[in-house]
């Protein structure tokens, strides 16, 4: 007797679900494709909400708690949407030696948020990274994907203020 | 396919562009990209136009001196970096001048001397093509002799021959532990079972280390070639590259390389018309340092929480999905092709008694020349820091160099003359690690450095075993008290005791080595700790 | 996936534990041999009938000729092993590990429903933990009383994952898992929603019975009233594996 | 009967319920035997108002929750050769330390305002100021003997005192434990 679970319908007509589904199909809906699939959900939607986690769990036939456990283990996965802009301060050793700690502190103070949080107006998320690998540019900050190097906090804040 | 066929193919690729005599090479690895290499590349292409058909702008991998990026070198078609004219801190506005100088003397205002010790003292094996070939070009790799080692292995050597060469080379794992590579390969090869796996560990997580990223961004095919040779030697038909998602450029280049190698028949089914097949798949990490530990890495490939499990059984016996698995790091695989090409004995002639070959280091921190270097094992720390690295800038004095990342330690001035290899670093209470070297000047507080690394281990602890999960937290709390001059001598004694317990009882390497930065700074800079004692 | 392993011929080995010469099947672990021979080894995550987790590090033992300590639960015996289970060094480490556990969450034995029937409490006494040298973390945790029969108190949880394993391996529901990382780890049901809202929990109560502390308990119990019964586990585990 | 001079003992309670002292009294007829060998020179159970100098054994019940607790603990440490933490509150904070999860201001408001209907006010005179974090005794002074239990049984206390009288260092984990 086959107890195979039927694949669930896509959660909505949003085309992005097809991308997610394609990742799972490419991996034969195997349970070990969970992390790959979560990456594709986050690439498509920017974060992982409960609905998408449930969809992935049912599609890959994995327990809900296991999926949630994996999603919360890896720090790259976000369970909340990010702000319109993201400022990632590298806290690798080279950047730390060159003052990344002070950068983070100054940003916390200026925007009243902790690393990992987003300002109330959803404008800016402050994040930290374990070495973005731009040690030659220490201290390095990634603002919306662009690496800014050898920064002091006032220049950085001026850059951030310019963002819409 | 045999070596002659491949040589013919390489000749074809070299001859494909007969008019080109000189190349304007722009570093397009991540660090130079961060300093604006892409606009420089575009400006050079635009400036060159169709005016000089004998010259060509080419994107290449890392040239090493990252702090001076964007780097551009002008070289003869088959020329190396040392023989080239190197320009530093190039801006798009400089493109016109560089192009204009192609017919005349070099542009002195941007020139960066290549006879400087930074370049002259290096010996490149792993990075032999970095900064010379286009990492996105399969043909470019074959043209410089790429995949010859694989074809040689497949057409002229038995798996046992390959194992013999790798063993003879004395190569040790470049990921940190320094386990003999030949022994590891032979163990997996001897394991019974039809299904075996090769895994390339590209989860370079040590803060301040970017060797593997640079290798993958500069010369991805070389890593694939090493993996394919390993798979042939141990009898695997499936391989994974586990790579950090934080390295999008490296991921992209690796994907391109896999696709092109497969299309050309150097990966996939029946490689080089032999019975040997290998599928290579990329698996992305998701921000967990602990996944650099091999059992955690395998859990992550299996789609699980990246938590280590007790060893034994080792991956060689029971790895991915319970099958024998070979895990090596990027740099280890990058050493394989030259070992097959030149022979294990040749490789063993480089380096020290127990550490053979070269090692790639990422130099960072308060040092004049920040970047990527490759030196023979046994080069002294003083050479690396003062000569190659150019010493401490700003008239400050050297205090310590940190090696081995969060698992390593700090080496003070009095030990700078030590010859760097796996064993010498261990005697100093630190380790080779993956090759990050962070230089600190007199303004760095060593208690603060220890606290920084403990904070790292605390947040990166997977939470599975008690000593690491809660011990790192308690040690961090004491270090924090110390840094704030609120700790007592009883706190310091407790810190040392916790170091011992966490080191001896933690489940995996992360916890077992988490106390190292504390222990090593206590060993060499105890006075700084004692000066911080307060709190009555 | 791996093909089923051939059952090799199991040999019998002899080894020495704490000065006693013993024989054992070579597929046994050190802890199994110790339990058979009434050699006490403290443990928390290990439970006969569940898969080995290897996380509590309390069952570490010393093996002659090797500096690295071995977890008795995850190490198979081998011919000629000479093992020490209770050296001064091991006692010191165990003591510290138990202290670290007490300091991590909020174990207030005097008001705990498992008082007097708690494995952590016994361990503290056996390991000579009469006080905790490290400061308590004082992190706040919620109590989940949403399930009609059971209650979850994170304050008492030691993250041994016995609940996760029994639910997955014996009951087959996999309602429990662990979320987060490091000291933020927490046991959860389904998507970390209240236990009472779980869609997958069968209310079988096995998790409650295997929980070593007062983290998972029956509703309606008062201080010291929660007595656990784990006799079902080896029986069910055996039957599961012989099917 | 011992001919040697009696051992001078002081006890007091800090932030606790006094249950450990009640358990002490539960030694019943053994108290008579005890009194042959020890002098209880200062205790809630006797009349002395000030803590004498040069004591052999000091026994503290309760945790360090207020400035007065802190002062008493420091004074005991100064005056006593051997300091004993008696009971879970003294040993690990126990119930009093459960307030550590809340801000002190919230705790005080809860006690003196939120749940009070008649003239709610926060007392400022006659009661010692609370510390922001409740600590076990060894969190502020060195402690020599730890006797966990809530309360430790009379037997456990008897064992500990007998050992101390005999000049030995007791191992209370053989007779009591957290929450016992």
SSE order and pairing:
The complex is a heterotetramer of chains A (164), B (536), C (243) and D (180).
Chain A: H1 16-26, H2 34-45, H3 50-59, H4 64-73, E1 85-90, H5 93-97, H6 100-111, E2 124-129, E3 141-143, E4 146-148, H7 153-162
Chain C: E1 12-17, E2 20-25, H1 30-36, E3 60-63, E4 70-71, E5 82-84, H2 88-104, H3 119-126, E6 143-144, E7 150-153, H4 162-171, E8 176-179, E9 186-189, H5 206-210, E10 216-218, H6 232-242
Parallel strand pairs in C: 1-5
Antiparallel strand pairs in C: 1-2, 3-4, 3-5, 6-7, 7-10, 8-9
Chain D: E1 7-13, H1 19-25, H2 30-37, E2 38-42, E3 55-61, E4 64-66, H3 67-79, E5 80-86, H4 88-92, H5 104-114, E6 130-135, E7 145-147, H6 154-165
Number of domains of chain A: 2
- Percent of residues in helices of chain A comes to 40-55%
Q: What share of residues are in beta strands of chain A?
A: 5-15%
Taking all Cα atoms into account, the compactness measure Rg of chain A is 19 Å
Assign the CATH class of the largest domain in chain A.
Answer: Alpha Beta
Shape of chain D: elongated
The CATH architecture of the largest domain in chain A would be 3-Layer(aba) Sandwich
SS element count, helices of chain D: 6
Largest sheet: number of strands, sense, barrel closure of chain A: 4 strands, mixed
Mean pLDDT of chain A: 90
Provide the CATH topology of the largest domain in chain A: Glutaredoxin
Description of the structure:
The complex is a heterotetramer of chains A (164), B (536), C (243) and D (180). Chain A is an alpha+beta fold. Chain A has seven helices and four strands. In chain A, strands 2-1-3-4 form a four-stranded mixed sheet, covered by helices on one side. In chain A, helix 1 packs antiparallel against helix 2, helix 2 runs antiparallel to helix 3 and helix 3 (50-59) packs across helix 4 (64-73). Chain A is elongated, with a radius of gyration of 19 Å. Chain B folds into four domains: 19-114, 3-Layer(aba) Sandwich (Glutaredoxin); 146-348, Rossmann fold; 358-438, Ubiquitin-like (UB roll) (Roll); 446-532, NADH-ubiquinone oxidoreductase 51kDa subunit, iron-sulphur binding domain (de novo design (two linked rop proteins), Up-down Bundle). Chain B contains 23 helices and 14 strands. In chain B, strands 2-1-3-4-5 form a five-stranded mixed sheet, with helices on one face. A five-stranded mixed sheet of chain B has the order 11-10-14-12-13. In chain B, strands 8-7-6-9 form a four-stranded parallel sheet, sandwiched between helices. In chain B, helix 8 crosses helix 11 and helix 19 (446-460) crosses helix 23 (516-532). Chain C is α+β, with helices and mostly antiparallel strands. Chain C has two domains: 12-86, Ubiquitin-like (UB roll) (Roll); 91-242, Alpha-Beta Plaits, CATH 3.30.70. Chain C has helices spanning 30-36, 88-104, 119-126, 162-171, 206-210, 232-242; strands at residues 12-17, 20-25, 60-63, 70-71, 82-84, 143-144, 150-153, 176-179, 186-189, 216-218. The radius of gyration of chain C is 19 Å and the shape is globular. The relative contact order of chain C is 0.14. Chain D is built from six helices and seven strands, in the order E-H-H-E-E-E-H-E-H-H-E-E-H. Chains in contact: A-B, A-C, B-C, C-D.
């Amino acid at each position: 007797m086959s107890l195979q679970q039927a694949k669930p319908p896509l959660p909505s007509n949003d085309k992005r679900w097809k991308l997610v589904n394609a990742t799972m199909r490419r991996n034969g809906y195997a349970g070990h494709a969970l992390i790959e699939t979560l990456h594709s959900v986050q690439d498509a939607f920017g974060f992982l909400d409960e609905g998408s986690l449930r969809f992935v769990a049912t599609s890959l036939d994995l327990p809900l708690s296991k999926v949630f456990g994996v999603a919360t283990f890896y720090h790259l996965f976000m369970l909340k949407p990010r702000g319109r802009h993201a400022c990632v301060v590298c806290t690798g050793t080279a950047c730390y030696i060159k003052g990344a700690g002070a950068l983070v502190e100054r940003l916390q103070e200026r925007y009243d948020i902790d690393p990992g949080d987003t300002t109330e107006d959803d404008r800016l998320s402050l994040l930290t990274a374990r070495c973005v690998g731009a040690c030659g540019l220490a201290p390095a900050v990634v603002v919306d994907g662009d690496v800014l190097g050898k920064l002091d906090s006032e220049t950085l804040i001026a850059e951030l203020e310019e963002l819409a | 396919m045999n070596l002659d066929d491949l040589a013919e193919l390489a000749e074809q690729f070299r001859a494909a562009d007969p008019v080109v005599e000189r190349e304007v090479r722009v570093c397009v690895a991540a660090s130079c990209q961060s300093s604006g290499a892409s606009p420089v590349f575009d400006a050079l292409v635009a400036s060159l136009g169709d005016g000089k058909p004998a010259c060509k702008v080419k994107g290449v991998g890392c040239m090493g001196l990252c702090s001076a990026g964007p780097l551009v070198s002008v070289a003869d078609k088959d020329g190396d970096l040392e023989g080239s004219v190197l320009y530093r801190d190039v801006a798009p506005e400089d493109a016109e001048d560089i192009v204009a100088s192609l017919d005349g003397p070099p542009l002195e205002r941007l020139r960066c001397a290549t006879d400087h010790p930074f370049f002259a003292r290096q010996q490149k094996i792993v990075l032999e093509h970095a900064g010379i070939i286009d990492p996105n070009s399969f043909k470019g790799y074959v043209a410089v002799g790429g995949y010859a080692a694989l074809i040689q292995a497949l057409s002229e050597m038995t798996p046992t021959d390959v194992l013999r060469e790798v063993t003879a080379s004395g190569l040790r794992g470049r990921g940190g532990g320094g386990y003999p590579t030949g022994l590891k390969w032979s163990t997996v090869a001897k394991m019974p079972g039809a299904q075996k796996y090769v895994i390339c560990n590209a989860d370079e997580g040590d803060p301040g280390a970017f060797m593997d990223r640079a290798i993958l961004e500069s010369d991805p095919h070389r890593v694939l070639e090493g993996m394919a040779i390993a798979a042939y030697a141990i009898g695997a038909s499936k391989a994974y590259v586990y790579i950090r998602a934080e390295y999008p450029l490296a991921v992209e280049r690796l994907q391109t390389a896999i696709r092109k190698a497969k299309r050309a028949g150097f990966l996939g089914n029946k490689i080089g018309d032999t019975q040997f097949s290998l599928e290579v798949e990329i698996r992305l990490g998701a921000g967990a340092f602990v996944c650099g530990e091999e059992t955690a890495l395998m859990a992550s490939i299996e789609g699980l929480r990246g938590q280590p499990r007790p060893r034994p059984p080792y991956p060689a016996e029971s790895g991915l999905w319970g099958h024998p698995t070979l895990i090596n790091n990027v740099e280890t695989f990058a050493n394989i092709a030259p070992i097959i090409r030149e022979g294990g004995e040749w490789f063993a002639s480089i380096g020290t008694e127990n550490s053979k070959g070269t090692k790639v280091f990422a130099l960072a921190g308060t040092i004049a020349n920040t970047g990527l270097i490759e030196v023979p094992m046994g080069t002294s720390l003083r050479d690396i820091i003062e000569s190659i690295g150019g010493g401490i800038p700003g008239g400050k004095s050297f205090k310590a160099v940190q090696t081995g990342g969060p698992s390593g330690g700090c080496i003070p001035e009095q030990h700078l003359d030590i010859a760097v290899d796996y064993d010498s670093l261990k005697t100093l209470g630190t380790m080779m690690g993956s090759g990050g070297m962070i230089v600190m000047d007199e303004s760095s507080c060593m208690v603060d450095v220890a606290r920084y690394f403990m904070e790292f281990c605390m947040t990166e602890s997977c939470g599975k075993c008690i000593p690491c999960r809660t011990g790192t937290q308690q040690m961090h709390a004491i270090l924090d008290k110390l840094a704030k001059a609120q700790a007592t001598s009883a706190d310091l004694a407790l810190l040392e005791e916790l170091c011992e317990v966490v080191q001896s009882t933690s489940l995996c390497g992360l916890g077992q080595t988490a106390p190292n930065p504390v222990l090593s700074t206590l060993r060499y800079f105890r006075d700084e700790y004692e000066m911080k004692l307060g709190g009555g | 996936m791996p093909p089923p392993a051939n059952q090799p011929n199991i040999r019998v080995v002899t080894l020495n534990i704490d000065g006693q010469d013993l024989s054992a099947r070579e597929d046994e672990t050190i802890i199994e041999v110790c339990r058979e021979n009434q050699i006490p080894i403290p443990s928390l995550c290990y439970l006969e009938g569940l898969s080995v987790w290897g996380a509590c590090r309390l069952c570490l033992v010393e093996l002659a000729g090797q500096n690295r300590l071995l977890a008795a639960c995850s190490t198979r015996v081998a011919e000629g092993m000479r093992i020490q289970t209770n050296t001064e060094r091991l006692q010191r480490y165990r003591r510290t590990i138990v202290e670290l556990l007490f300091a991590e969450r909020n174990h207030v034995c005097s008001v705990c429903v498992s008082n007097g029937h708690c494995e952590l409490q016994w361990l503290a006494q056996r390991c000579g933990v009469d006080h905790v040298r490290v400061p308590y973390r004082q992190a706040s945790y919620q109590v989940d009383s949403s399930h009609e029969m059971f209650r979850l108190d994170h304050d008492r949880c030691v993250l041994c994952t016995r609940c996760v394993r029994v639910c997955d391996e014996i009951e087959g529901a996999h309602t429990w898992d662990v979320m987060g990382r490091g000291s933020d780890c927490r046991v959860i049901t389904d998507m970390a929603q209240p236990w009472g809202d779980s869609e997958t929990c069968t209310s079988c109560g096995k998790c409650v019975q295997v929980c070593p502390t007062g983290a998972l308990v029956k509703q309606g119990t008062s201080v010291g009233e929660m007595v656990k019964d784990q006799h079902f586990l080896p029986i069910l585990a055996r039957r599961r594996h012989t099917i | 009967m011992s001919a040697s001079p009696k051992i001078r003992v002081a006890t007091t309670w800090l932030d606790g319920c006094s249950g450990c002292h009640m358990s002490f009294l539960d030694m019943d007829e053994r108290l008579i035997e005890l009194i042959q060998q020890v002098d209880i020179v200062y205790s809630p159970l006797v009349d002395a108002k000030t803590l004498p100098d040069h004591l052999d054994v000091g026994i503290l019940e309760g945790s360090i929750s207020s400035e007065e607790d802190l002062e008493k603990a420091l004074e005991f440490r100064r005056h006593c050769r051997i300091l004993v933490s008696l009971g879970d509150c003294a040993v690990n904070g126990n119930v009093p330390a459960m307030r550590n999860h809340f801000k002190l201001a919230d705790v005080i408001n809860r006690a003196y305002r939120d749940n009070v209907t008649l003239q709610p006010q926060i007392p400022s005179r006659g009661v010692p100021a609370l510390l922001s974090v409740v600590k076990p005794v060894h969190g502020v002074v060195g402690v020599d003997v730890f006797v966990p239990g809530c309360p430790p049984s009379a037997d456990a206390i008897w064992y500990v005192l007998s050992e101390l009288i005999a000049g030995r260092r007791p191992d209370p984990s053989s007779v009591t434990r957290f929450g016992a």
